[in-house]
Amino acid sequence: MAGCSRFDHPERPAWRNQAEEACLAQHLVEATPYLQPSHAIDGPSICGLNHPFRVYALAGGTVKLNTASLLDCSMIPALDAWIKDVVEPDAQARFGDPVVQINTMGTYSCRGINNMSGAKLSEHAFANAMDVGGFVLASGREINVMRGWKSADTQESAFLHDSHAGACTYFTTVLGPGANIFHYNHVHLDLAMHGSTSRGPRRYCKPVPDAEQVEAPRRDNLPDPPPIEEEQDIARTPMPAPTYSGASTVALAAEPRGAPLAFAPSPRLVSRDQLDVDQASGGVGQPPRPPAAMQPDGDITSLIKSQVAR
């Protein structure tokens, strides 16, 4: 009996639930035809979140995602603000054309950092991250991270570097080509909890951008902690055995710049198998498979916790 009482049941860090609740309480995300509440995801291990959103488009519906994506509440206004303040102005300045689509290479996935077995859980395991593989302009031009990061087209390369550098103001972890061998073809964005500094939340941004590319927050009276050398998080539970397929909150979301994209979804429930099809990333460097139909998952008040697990 004494032994039974010592079983260690890992729990999701409290700050994650608190961040979700704060985001919802402040109404930073509202349900729309292109942004719908989904079922709670509880496990395996501590993977998952209480109030995921299935996202088809960002920035008021004007910037589509190439595939429906599960995201934590806090990531949505952060992405909206990054698009509004960094991505769109730079695209207009360099190409005279707005971005109308982000090609994502993965959001939710219960896996370790860099898809490495036995590694600490990635922010993807909590839908608190997005991998951006490229952008599509209104003209149809596609700007791909892998091909364009060191492209001979200086405007294309500069746009990708500016988007990466600008993201360091809105996200706490930003990893692009050159950060390590795993990010040669995408930019990873997340809102991991790295602690605080005299200039606000501690951020991990690689490759390190030029100082003039990143807005410097004002100092407060907190001392600066030592620098961090790798992406890290307080969720240190190892990744579950591979038997399954596979924040600082930005206060204001972007205002719509034009007519939202047209979606006509109808409510449905999502089975575990369907979620696997919708969200399986296929490993680093492989784009997620698009769902058969872009449809939301129903009202958040009627969702049943533990309905879906990865």
Task: Kindly describe this structure.
By secondary structure, the chain is an alpha+beta fold. It contains 5 helices and 13 strands. The protein has helices at 14-25, 75-95, 145-148, 154-167, 272-279, and strands at 35-37, 41-42, 48-49, 53-58, 63-71, 99-106, 129-137, 142-144, 173-175, 187-190, 196-197, 200-201, 204-206. The strands form 3 sheets. Strands 1, 4, 5, 6, 7, 8, 9, 10 and 13 form a 9-stranded mixed β-sheet that branches. A two-stranded antiparallel sheet has the order 2-3. Strand 4 (53-58) and strand 5 form a beta hairpin. Helix 2 (75-95) packs antiparallel against helix 4 (154-167). The chain is globular and about 50 Å long. The two termini are 32 Å apart. Mean pLDDT is 75; it is low at 229-310.
H/E series, N to C?
HEEEEEHEEEHHEEEEEH
Can you give the helix content as a percent range? Answer: 10-25%
The helix tally amounts to: 5
Largest sheet: 9 strands, mixed
Number of strands: 13
- Distance separating the two termini: 32 Å
C-alpha-based Rg, rounded: 19 Å
- The average pLDDT value, as a whole number, equals 75
Q: Estimate the global geometry from the Cα principal axes.
A: globular
**Fraction of residues in β-strands:** 15-25%
Uncertain segments: 229-310
**Structural class computed from helices and strand pairing:** alpha+beta
